[in-house]
Write a structure and sequence with these properties.
Layout: H1 4-32, H2 34-44, H3 59-92, H4 101-118, H5 128-156, E1 157-164, E2 170-174, E3 177-178, E4 183-187, E5 191-198, E6 202-215, E7 222-239
Parallel strand pairs: 1-7
Antiparallel strand pairs: 1-4, 2-3, 2-5, 5-7, 6-7
Helix pairs in contact: 1-3, 1-5, 2-3, 3-4, 4-5
Length: about 240
């Protein structure tokens, strides 16, 4: 389990890049294939755009509406879709199989890109040329989004490993989650509750933090941990008898 907030923070910056770039590409594509776009609009929306329109709206007016309203709206909604997946990415980060943060990001970004397609937020498919161009760009740009998502998450988090002198006598619990022998990522400068669950025939001695980890009271079996850098925490324990 990783950091939801670090995932959202990373997703905010990479999501702006992702949807902003996608919107810019769609605008360029619409202008590049303007004749085909105008023809598609007139054929599909003849009752509201063109000579037969009841309200007298021209095809050019409808084209301008697509560029100035629909493209930004799709980007706005798509940004929040990407942000949701970024939060999921933060939570699932430590459980993803690969160690490479960029590859981890790409694995989640693939679902974000698929969702944009399902919800019709990825672009405009009004001709064979537009479908090929949009699909190719979306594929490449989604990989870029995932890479930056992973790298930014790594920048905003730190890795902490939790050990026990004797795992049979002492279990390390962090924020209610058993973490003995595990490594977890936490948002930089964040605080977390660490607790030692000790066997009945054992007594807790102290915590031994290493690296960028600060403990409020290393002698207490339950204390507050602040993450300022990569590091580790080891719990010391001894038998009562």
């Amino acid at each position: 389990m990783g950091s939801f907030f670090a995932g959202v923070k990373a997703g905010t910056l990479s999501g702006i890049l992702y949807l902003g770039g996608l919107a810019a590409f769609n605008v360029v594509l619409l202008y590049a294939l303007r004749p085909e776009v105008l023809s598609a609009i007139q054929q599909s929306y003849a009752s509201i755009c063109g000579p037969a329109a009841v309200n007298g709206t021209s095809v050019e007016d409808c084209f301008s509406l697509v560029v100035s309203v629909y493209v930004p709206f799709d980007a706005f909604v798509g940004f929040f879709v990407a942000l949701i997946y970024a939060g999921i990415f933060g939570i699932a980060y430590d459980s993803l199989p690969t160690r490479n943060p960029g590859l981890k990001g790409v694995s989640i970004a693939a679902f974000a890109g698929l969702s944009l397609i399902v919800f019709n937020l990825s672009g405009f498919y009004f001709s064979t040329e537009s479908a090929i161009a949009t699909t190719a760009f979306l594929l490449v740009w989604t990989v870029v989004f995932g890479y930056f998502l992973g790298r930014l998450y790594k920048k905003y988090t730190r890795l902490v490993k939790f050990d026990s002198q004797d795992p049979e006598l002492l279990k390390v619990v962090v924020d209610g989650k058993e973490s003995t022998g595990k490594s977890r990522t936490f948002a930089l400068t964040s605080s977390h509750r660490i607790r030692a669950e000790v066997a009945d025939d054992a007594s807790f001695k102290e915590w031994n933090p290493i690296g960028g980890i600060t403990l409020e009271d290393p002698k207490s079996f339950e204390t507050l941990m602040e993450v300022n850098g990569d590091g580790s925490v080891k719990g010391s324990v001894g038998r009562k008898y």
